[in-house]
Design brief:
CATH class: Alpha Beta
Radius of gyration: 14 Å
Number of strands: 4
Largest sheet: 4 strands, parallel
Structural class: alpha/beta
CATH architecture: 3-Layer(aba) Sandwich
Oligomer: single chain
Strand content: 15-25%
Order of helices and strands: HEHEHEHHEH
Protein name: V-type proton ATPase subunit F
CATH topology: Rossmann fold
InterPro entries: ATPase_V1-cplx_f_g_su (IPR008218), ATPase_V1-cplx_fsu_euk (IPR005772), ATPase_V1_fsu_sf (IPR036906)
Distance between the termini: 33 Å
Subunit structure: V-ATPase is a heteromultimeric enzyme made up of two complexes: the ATP-hydrolytic V1 complex and the proton translocation V0 complex.
CATH superfamily: ATPase, V1 complex, subunit F
Number of helices: 6
GO molecular function, one term: proton-transporting ATPase activity, rotational mechanism
Organism: Pseudomicrostroma glucosiphilum
Strand order of the largest sheet: 2-1-3-4
Length: 122
């Protein structure tokens, strides 16, 4: 299957973020809840959320759901599952680490930026 065929049905932006980031994304219109009320394209993570729960959401959005085009994850949350994030190399969904209100973006931790730097020999 070509990349354009893979991308054709991918229309959603998913997120694994803190409450503030998720609220902003939902207000921007990025939220979707299926009729069953269980299947959502976002996961709200707080201090009580275990790394295994975060991994489960990550796996659902990157492997099981075929309607996700982009997965946004707060960088401080990605740090909790860093080995899984660093190992991820699929074209779809595209994985983007974003800052949060309480945690600034650190380019030295971004897995995509690290791969780009390797490509250019930096």
């Amino acid at each position: 299957m070509s990349i354009s065929q893979q991308a054709a049905n991918r229309t959603l932006i998913a997120s694994i973020c803190d409450e503030d980031s998720t609220t902003g994304l939902l207000l921007a219109g990025c939220g979707q809840v299926e009729a069953d009320g269980e299947s959502k394209n976002f996961a709200i993570v707080d201090n009580k959320t275990s790394p295994s729960d975060i991994e489960a959401h990550f796996t659902t959005f990157t492997q099981e759901r075929k309607d996700i085009a982009i997965l946004l994850i707060n960088q401080h949350i990605a740090e909790k599952i860093r080995p899984l994030v660093d190992k991820y190399s699929q074209a779809f969904p595209a994985l983007l680490e974003i800052p949060s209100k309480e945690h600034p973006y650190d380019p030295s931790k971004d897995s995509v930026l690290k791969r780009v730097q390797k490509l250019f020999g930096e």
